[in-house]
Amino acid sequence: PMAKAIATVSKSISSAVSSVLSMSISTSGETTLMNEVLATRAHESADIQFRPILQVIKDVYNLALPKADTTANGLIGEVDSSKKKTALVIFDGALSTHASLLHKISCEMSCKCAGIANIHATTLSIFKLLSSYSWESIGVLSVAALAANFGELWLVAQLYTTNQLAKAVSFLKQLPSGLTDQANHAKYEVLTTLIFTIISVVEYIILFKELRTQHITLEVPALTEALSKVPNAIYWTVRTAVACGIMISSLVGSTPDQQIPSATEASEISVVTNKIKDILSYLKNSYKLCVHYIDEYKKEMESYDKLVQIIESSLDQLTILSTLINFSKDTVALLCDGTTKKKVQIDDLKGKNIFFLVSDLDIQKEELEILCDIYEKENTADSSYEIVWFPIIDVSITWDAARLKQYEQLRLKMKWLSIENPLSIKAPVIRYVKEKWHFAKKTILTVLDTKGKVVEHNALHKVQVAGSFQTVFTVDRDLWLEKTWNLQWLVRGIFDEITEWTREKKYVCLYGGEDIRWIKEFIAYTKKTATSAGVAIELVYMGTSTAAEHVDQIIKILPKDQTHTIKNRKSMWLFWTRLESMLRVKVHSGKTVKEDKLMREVLMTLTYDGSGQGWAIIGGGLETDTLVKAKGDLILECFAKFEQWKEKGSQKGMFLQAINEWLSKAHSEKKHCNKLTFPMIDGHVLDIVECPDCGQPMEKYVMYKCCVTK
Question: Over 60: is that where the pLDDT of 709 sits?
Answer without folding.
Answer: no
